[in-house]
Amino acid sequence: MTSQKLGLTLPDKQLNGQTGLMSAILADLLTLEHGATVVTTIEPVAPHAGLIWANPDDDSVQVWSDIAEDWVPFSTGGDVTAHIASSPATHAAGSITDTHLASNSVTSGKIASDAVVAGKIAAGGVSASNQLAAGVADDTAVGNRTVDQTLATPANTGPLTSLLSWIAGRIKAITGESDWKTTPQTTLAAARAHHDSNAPHSGHETPAGAQTKVNAHAALNGAHGVYSGSGSPEGVVAASPPAIYIDSASGGGIWRKNSGAGNTGWVRSDGMRIKSIQRGTLVLDHVTSGTATITAVDTAKSELRLLGSTTDSESVNHGVRIKLTNSTTITGEADSSQRTNRASWEVTEWE
Fold first, then answer.
1. From 1.10.3470, 2.60.40, 1.10.540, 2.40.160, which CATH number describes the 273-351 domain?
2. Which of 126, 129, 136, 245 is deepest in the core (most CB within 10 A)?
């Protein structure tokens, strides 16, 4: 009786349970001589996926399984068909490895439409650190996401769609636009440049321009009614009361415009000693003008003040005016001669 080793390798085709696969296996089995003894050892052929041998103990055909790391029964093509068609298909933990999947073998044609839904994958069943190779979960695999820029309560943790929605909402809030995708009116860089600019708006004053105007204003003689010069302003500087004049000459002082709009009527008021004070009443008895005589004074150093006025007709305004006409004369004027007007006056002469 002839003794033969049997080492059969499955044909290079998909294990789909079709009769073609079993026919190929049986064809190899038929090469055994009738009545031959099948050697029970498989040496020197090393076990590997797809190796078939005949078991003489029970006349069965077995196939080597890399998953089980053992010989498993392989009697008919129906066993393969039943395994593939089983619903759901069951595989031992870790049974599907990189060696069982050819490159690009898991295509859309291998998986029915919508076959892999959320309920088919257990929580944490697919993790990037174990089941997914680097770069597998690309944009195509993840699919499109639609953001909701109105989604409230932003947080640091959440589903991808929520995270993207919160970011869109923050962008919308920053730009102030109605939609986060709208081009903003300005950029942060432009806003900073605007903030740092000396004159960001057309027509606005620059620091240099403002300083020039301040300097020009300060150089004005008479700005805000304040004048300056060397020497007395009387007969020289035209101004209106109550202008002030500062005499910068040695021994000069402060002058106040007491009357008139011309260059006369200045009196010193910088703490000079009083030389004399004269008081009196100028009576305009049904006349529009009159005079009062005083002791001669230096008009440049004297000041006339109206202390008050009365009339014999209270229904009519007084309308009395007085002025120091010359060194000895005070002139009074009234609006009407239909009444008697009285004006009380005071003349102060400074040394």
1. 2.60.40
2. 245
Note the pLDDT tens digit of each residue in 290-320: 999 999 999 988 889 888 888 776 555 567 8
User: Hey, where are the domains in the chain?
Assistant: 3-85, 212-271, 273-351
Do the Cβ atoms of 56 and 40 come closer than 8 Å?
Answer: yes
What is the three-class DSSP state of 161?
Answer: helix
The span from the CA of 171 to the CA of 151, in Å, is: 13
Look at the alpha carbons of 88, 92, 97, 100 in this order and tell me if their dihedral is positive or negative: negative
341, containing H or E segment: strand 340-350
pTM: 0.34
Q: Give CA–CA dist 322/343, Å, rounded.
A: 8
Among candidate residues 251, 235, 234, 337, the one with its CA nearest the CA of residue 287: 337
